Amino acid sequence: MKKKSWLYLLVAMMLVIMAACSKSDGGEASTKTDDDEKATNQSNQNEEEEEEEELGTIKIGVLASLTGALESYGKQTKQGFELGLEYATGGTMIVAGKKIEVVYEDTETKPEVAVQKATKLLEEDEVDFLVGSSSSGDTLAVLPLAEEYEKIMIVEPAVADSITGSEFNPYIFRTGRNSSQDAVAGAAAIAGPGVKIATFAPDYSFGWDGIAAFKKAAEALGAEVIIEEFADPAATDFTSNLQKVIEAKPDYMFVVWAGANSPWNQIADLKMQEKGIKISTGAPDIPALSIMEPLVGMEGFSVYYHTLPNNPINDWLVKEHKARYNGEVPDLFTPGGMSAAIAIVEALKKSDGDANGKTLIKVMEGMSFETPKGKMTFRAEDHQALQTLYSIKLEKQEGIPYPVPVLLRELSPEETEPPIQNK
Questions:
Q1: Where is region (Disordered) located (predicted)?
Q2: Angle, alpha carbons 251-255-257 (nearest 5°)
Q3: What is the DSSP string of 325-382?
Q4: Which tens digits make up the pLDDT trace of 247-281?
Q5: Interior/surface letters 250-272, b for 16+ CB within 10 angstroms, e for the rest
Q6: Nearest-5° angle of CA 324, CA 326, CA 330?
Q7: FRET pair for 4, CA 20 to 30 Å: which of 19, 87, 258, 311?
Q8: Cα–Cα distance measured from residue 165 to residue 423, given in angstroms and rounded to the nearest whole number
Q9: Does 197 have pLDDT greater than 50?
Q10: What angle do CA 258, 259, 263 make, to 5 degrees?
Q11: Has residue 388 got a pLDDT over 80?
Q12: Pairwise CA distance, residues 43 & 171, whole Å
């Protein structure tokens, strides 16, 4: 019995040792697998970093009103810019062998903040391009920095003529239209030999400049501006101004206006269109269209409405925008953001990835590129993008809670070309 007991004990001890060895081997194998996985992940990360360093990086700083009164404009620009980079790079975010990075900064629609944010983008982020801004005031404050740091700035969507006029510097290129293009488009939509036109605008620089540009363009087309009415921009009662227009008996009244105290309801109350005076103005963004019910039937112009352009890029924009933003269509400044992104990518393709400002000036002057609004061309003299605008009529359409701009005809870049003002 003793021999059997020892035998059993020996077998049991061997089983314990084997189990322990097996457990130890398994633990070591498991540890080794975890270490291998960590090493692999680290290796992959190092390879990605090396690849990115090898590719090089193009940095773009975008200034926009992402909060405050112009928040909707800034967000439209941002969404359009992101979609534009995706479209222009085929989803790779790489151009001419370089990776694109974007830094967004909120100007808060304050020129002093815009300067601070632009300086941060140029000095800390070391961006190669600036883009912006939603406000002309913000943009004008930043323009000198582009020249000081010798960086290309794509202006979008600020409209002040002075940006590519009196305050122009060679590093500035604008994909957005300017105020004079709006005026020329407004004239092209209604002016002609023998047409009598009245104008109505707020009594400050925005109104004066807009009407002066419109009058020049309209008269060049053979029309006659028979009365100019400027109203207090803070007023809510425009009866006396509008009565003078009625007494002058024009064929059209062209309106330049901005602000919540619009004259549309009083125009309707005075039955000006029923008296044979056709109203004409620009069709703005969708929120502003929602208060233009009294102007259904009017003929004017539009910078953009998603159904107006007929080209593959706009088709792509509308489809992708709906897919990503809960079925919402792109609005007034979305295609501008997209156009700015496309312009940068096309310029870098032509420069083989060289983002040097002086090099790009030569590349971009006279450069044409396709956008959601068709072909744009940076005019060599002032870097203003010549572009298509639209002659439209406001109509009610079933299921849409605001008057819709319906295309009468495209206004070609040649028709809407503004005067050169930077001399």
A1: 25-56
A2: 170
A3: TTTPPP-TTHHHHHHHHHHHHHHHHHTTT---HHHHHHHHTT-EEEETTEEEEE-TTT
A4: 999 999 999 987 678 899 999 999 999 999 999 99
A5: bbbbbbbbeeeebbbebbbebeb
A6: 70
A7: 19
A8: 8
A9: yes
A10: 85
A11: yes
A12: 42
Question: Cis link prior to 405 (omega < 30° from 0)?
Answer: no
For tokens 């122009």, the residue is 168
Is the pLDDT assigned to residue 156 strictly greater than 60? yes
Residue 353 burial (CB < 10 Å; 0-12/13-18/19+)?
middle
Mean pLDDT of the chain: 89
Sheet holding 385-386, edge to edge: 368-371, 374-378, 385-386
Alpha-carbon Rg for the chain in angstroms: 31
| C-beta of residue 245 within 8 angstroms of C-beta of residue 198 | yes
What the block records as the tokens of 340 is: 């700015």
Name the residue with tokens 């400050």.
204
Q: Is 366 left (phi over 0), alpha (psi -120 to 50) or beta?
A: left
Structure tokens at 134: 């939603």
Instruction: For residue range 93-133, list pLDDT tens digits in order.
Output: 999 999 999 999 999 999 999 999 999 999 999 999 999 99
Confidence of residue 24 (pLDDT cuts 50, 70, 90): very low
Pairing of strands 389-395, 94-95: unpaired
Return the CATH fold of 57-177+308-387.
Answer: Rossmann fold (3.40.50)
What pLDDT is attached to residue 400?
Answer: 96
**Tokens at 277, concatenated:** 């005076």
Amino acid of residue 58: I
Structure tokens at 406: 């319906």
Cross-sheet strand order for the sheet of 299-302: 282-283, 299-302, 389-395, 404-411
- C-alpha span between 37 and 156 (Å, rounded): 47
Q: In this structure, are residues 266 and 237 in contact, taking their beta carbons and an 8 Å threshold? A: yes
CATH 3.40.50.2300 intervals, the chain: 57-177+308-387, 181-302
C-alpha 379/C-alpha 182 separation (Å) is 17
- Torsion region of 40: left, alpha or beta (phi above 0 gives left; psi -120 to 50 gives alpha): alpha
> What is the pTM (predicted TM-score) of this model?
0.83
**Mutual angle of helices 179-190 and 205-220, in 10-degree steps:** 40
On whether the CB atoms of residues 136 and 159 are closer than 8 A, the answer is: yes
